[in-house]
Design a protein that fits this description.
two-stranded antiparallel sheet, binds zinc ion, mainly alpha
């Protein structure tokens, strides 16, 4: 709680749980809710890791597809920078 009686600069209470007993952390969330959110993010991270692991196995099974994808990606990056140059 801030000196002027407000919970945080922009918020009167937590955006998620609606309480103001727990101190404000950031983005309108109290410490509790912020930690919950962070845990959730970590789950998402693990899920992504798993996804890439599977993706990587596919690539190993079929390296030709990967090479093709790599070439396509290179071209896309090149085109992107060329576009940027023109815009400058
Ligand atoms: Zn909260």
């Amino acid at each position: 709680m801030l000196k002027n009686g407000k919970w945080s600069k922009e918020f009167n209470r937590c955006m998620k749980c609606g309480g103001n007993d727990c101190p404000h952390h950031s983005n309108g969330l109290c410490y509790n809710c912020f930690n919950t959110k962070r845990n959730h993010d970590q789950k998402t991270k693990l899920y992504r890791k798993e996804f890439y692991r599977k993706y990587w196995l596919k690539i190993k099974e079929n390296p030709e597809t990967y090479k093709e994808l790599q070439e396509k990606n290179k071209e896309a990056v090149k085109r992107y920078y060329e576009k940027k140059k023109i815009n400058k």
